[in-house]
Amino acid sequence: RNSHRHPKLNTDGNGASYSQHMFGKAIDIGIDDIDQDGDTTQTDKMIVYEMLQDIVSNKGGLGLYPGTMNLHFDCRGFRARWDWP
Q1: Helix, strand or coil for residue 68?
Q2: CA 7, CA 22: separation in Å to the nearest integer?
Q3: C or N: which end of the chain has fewer Cβ atoms within 10 Å?
Q4: On the CB side of 18, how many CA atoms lie within 13 Å of its CA?
Q5: Mean pLDDT, the chain, whole residue set
Q6: Beta strands 61-63; 26-30: pairing state
């Protein structure tokens, strides 16, 4: 859904002032029917979130974007989490 953002685009889109997107260190992904049960639900989102927890560990950021089927992850070099489940 979203990867590198020019600082102006980041500002116009209400992005965080030090968004990892501006440094090419972040990506937002849309979640689909991961468990293939015929529905795209928060369960699908949490499956991907848990996988990303293992991948980024304490060296990156994870964000849930509540009310959407999108997830953020980045490689900022330290642990950051927001909008916890």
Answers
A1: coil
A2: 6
A3: C
A4: 3
A5: 89
A6: unpaired
In this predicted model, what pLDDT tens digit does every residue of 16-56 receive, in sequence order?
777 898 888 999 999 999 999 999 999 999 999 999 999 99
Facing residues of 38 across strands?
Answer: none
From 81, 73, 83, 58, select the one nearest 26 (Cα to Cα). 73
What sign results for the dihedral spanned by CA atoms 56, 40, 64, 47? Answer: negative
Mean pLDDT computed over 55-75? 94
What tokens does 51 get? 């996988």
User: 84 in helix, strand or coil?
Assistant: coil
CA distance linking residue 79 with residue 57, whole number of Å: 7
The three-point CA angle 11-12-14 to 5° equals: 65
Q: Helix (H) and strand (E) counts for the chain?
A: 2, 4
Helix (H) or strand (E) holding 75: none
